[in-house]
Write a structure and sequence with these properties.
The complex is a heterodimer of chains A (about 260) and B (about 220). With about 260 residues, chain A is of the alpha/beta class. Chain A has helices at about 1-20, 60-70, 85-90, 105-110, 150-165, 175-185, 195-200, 230-245, 245-255; strands spanning about 35-40, 50, 55-60, 75-80, 95-100, 110-115, 120-130, 145-150, 165-170, 190, 205-210, 215-220, 220-225. Chain A is built from 9 helices and 13 strands. The chains are: A alpha/beta (about 260), B mainly alpha (about 220). The interface of A and B includes residues 151, 170, 171 and 176 of A.
Chain lengths: ~260, ~220
């Protein structure tokens, strides 16, 4: 038993030392055209990233990334890992960048460098389409509300839950959050506006009863101090596709203007 | 170092979750033990329908992933009942206990069956020839020996179920894993947080193993 504990300690210490090293070993700047950048994204965050009927990943994020890569002439490999896993991959250097409808927040800016915002979003509440009793945040008193871990929706719900007296239940993925509301385990959920709008148009069985809360903007993220050339190319490319109309074309394709 | 700072922040959260993890696991294992024994006896009975039910149950549970079972119990079954007009709803806790009980019960059923078959048939014959009924012989002679034989496999199943309980966090059960995921979502400190989560489970299982070893030593002949 003692020996086991000793071994465990050694393991933990070595892990700590390795973690400490991470920051110091900066890779030499790679040649822009030779490297294939690994970009991580969410599994399903429609209309930003989702699989179409043919099983191919499409969406605002995916198309913007493709357009920018074409504009700037860099190669990339896309891996849809799920939001939390994508961020973890970035942190452990398994991925060079993350594009996953990621809101630019002060907290995240401590750890990541963000591109210029490529989409202005906000948070909205949704309830089951069959529900007629929830009309405002006040009606949530004493009820359960579903949110997705690490999202702006969760942060917003956390900020108003005490004032309105509701309880939060956290899920990993949006579809599970919707299911929880449809089943009636939770009465409402909070989600980014474009995502909820798209989900409702696709028949996810929910409806919006409140207006969008003005929220943050989405940005492309790299680990702080790393892959700066990739970030620069993203910003330059974004400016170009906004100028040549490609950017608006992509938005119109996925998010219908009301 | 990050590890220390994260520990200070995440430790109270993980302790909140620890209690739920222990509660869900303990309750599920207790019920699964009973369910497993029932299913095992049904499987060993000479009545074909009982045998069939036991076989179906084990086949169904062993043939589907636990994650699917969790979703099924928590989302699909209530919606099915609501469709039929009943207002059935589970809390994440009850859905977790139901799923883990069903899951561990199937594996325990097979563990018990193997152990009972491992007891020398001569034991049953001897007991029967002394005038005990089949049920008496099973309860007083075969089963005590079988339980001793299956103890290591049973402990193994306990450990597996304890770890499997982390999967229930996907439906919002506030266990260790759930607390960790919320913290990671907020702080983005995935590496350090999961290191502490691993340690929490390691300690829990070390305690469980120690307990099991004591029981095993005491039941030795």
């Amino acid at each position: 038993m003692k020996r086991m504990l000793g071994l465990l300690l050694v393991l933990l210490l070595s892990v700590g030392v390795l973690a400490g090293c991470g920051g110091g070993t900066e890779k030499a700047a790679p040649e822009a055209n030779a490297t294939v950048y690994k970009i991580a994204t969410d599994t399903t965050f429609a209309p930003f990233e989702f699989q179409n009927d043919a099983g191919k990943y499409v969406g605002v994020d995916i198309d913007i990334l493709a357009a920018i890569a074409a504009d700037q002439g860099f190669k990339y490999e896309l891996s849809p890992l799920g939001f939390n896993a994508a961020v973890a991959a970035l942190e452990s250097n398994q991925a060079d960048g993350v594009i996953a409808g990621m809101s630019i927040t002060a907290e995240r800016q401590k750890k990541y460098d963000f591109s210029a915002p490529y989409y202005d979003s906000g948070v909205v509440m949704a309830v089951s389409a069959a529900n007629d009793t929830i009309k405002s945040y006040k009606d949530l008193a004493g009820k359960k509300v579903a949110v997705k871990t690490g999202t702006e929706g969760a942060t917003f719900a956390e900020s108003i839950k005490d004032a309105n007296g509701f309880e939060l239940v956290y899920f990993d993925e949006s579809p599970m959050m919707y299911e929880d509301v449809k089943t009636g385990n939770s009465v409402a959920c909070f989600e980014d506006y474009p995502v909820m709008g798209y989900g409702i148009s696709q028949g996810n069985g929910l409806k919006m009863v409140t207006d969008m809360e003005k929220g943050s903007s989405y940005g492309f993220a790299v680990l702080k101090g790393k892959n700066q050339d990739l970030l620069k190319m993203f910003d330059a490319g974004l400016k170009n596709i906004k100028a040549n109309g490609k950017y608006q074309e992509i938005l119109d394709k996925y998010i219908s203007a009301k | 170092m990050e590890l220390g700072r994260v520990f200070v922040e995440v430790n109270p959260l993980l302790f909140n979750g620890l209690w739920i993890t222990v509660e869900v696991t303990f309750l599920s294992l207790l019920l699964a033990f009973i369910l497993g024994l029932c299913s095992c006896f049904m499987g060993l009975s000479d009545k074909a329908p009982l045998q069939w039910i036991s076989k179906m149950y084990v086949w169904l549970i062993r043939g589907t992933p636990l994650l699917v079972q969790v979703f099924y119990v928590y989302f699909a079954i209530p919606q099915l009942f609501q469709f039929l007009g009943f207002d059935l709803r589970f809390t994440p806790f009850s859905a977790g206990v139901i799923t883990l009980t069903l899951n561990a019960g199937a594996y325990m059923s097979e563990i018990f069956r193997g152990a009972i078959n491992a007891v020398n048939p001569g034991q049953m014959e001897a007991a029967r020839s002394l005038g005990l009924s089949k049920w008496q012989a099973m309860r007083r002679v075969v089963l005590p020996q079988a339980l001793r034989i299956c103890l290591p496999s049973l402990v193994n199943q306990f450990i597996i179920t304890l770890k499997d309980s982390s999967l229930i966090s996907v439906i919002g059960l506030a266990d260790i894993m759930y607390q960790a995921k919320i913290y990671v979502g907020r702080s983005m400190e995935s590496f350090a947080t999961y290191t502490w989560v691993a340690l929490f489970y390691l300690v829990l299982i070390a305690v469980l193993t120690k307990l099991a070893n004591t029981v095993e030593r005491r039941t030795q002949i």
